[in-house]
Amino acid sequence: MSKQSTAANNIAQNKRARHDYFIEDTYEAGIVLQGWEVKALRAGRISLVDSYVLLKDGEAFLLGSNITPLLSTSTHYVPEATRTRKLLLNKRELNRLIGAVQQKGYTCLALSFYWKNGLAKCQIGLAKGKQLHDKRHSEKERDWQREKQRIFRNN
Asked: Residues 53, 154: contact at Cβ < 8 Å?
């Protein structure tokens, strides 16, 4: 991500995705949201744990993300927290994603939500699943990096 996407601009991250998948490529997508969803995003009330991207009829949709409505949401409107939301990508990116997902083992996941120039953006990733031994190797590598930092700091 660019320098625009700092911690202050970050809304939510899907940490589970980086643990369970190898992220091959990332894309930035706009999201079609309703008014109450934008207010809930500003309050940070989103969960991306089980979310994924469905590519259907030349369009991309975000499924499984949970945006919890605020208590101040209008009483005459019943908000749906886990509704399907449309993602906005250009045609070239969509064609590249559709071609890759049709290959064996690739999937498309939501990695993070962030603000960019006042608009909510979703970072989606083209991912390939990790085996159990790959997860163990990643964990060992992360532990070794942490231990190496401790050793350098203490010396």
From this structure: no
Query: Tell me: the pLDDT tens digits for 1-56?
Result: 444 545 668 888 888 878 788 888 899 999 998 888 888 888 888 888 888 888 98
Q: Which CATH number fits domain 10-154: 2.40.280.10, 2.60.120.10, 3.40.50.2300, 3.90.550.10?
A: 2.40.280.10
**pTM score, whole prediction:** 0.74
Phi-psi bin for 36: left (phi > 0), alpha (psi -120 to 50), beta?
alpha
CB 102 within 8 A of CB 91: no
Domain boundaries, the chain: 10-154
> How far apart, in Å, are the Cα atoms of 103 and each of 21, 22, 57, 96?
16, 15, 17, 11
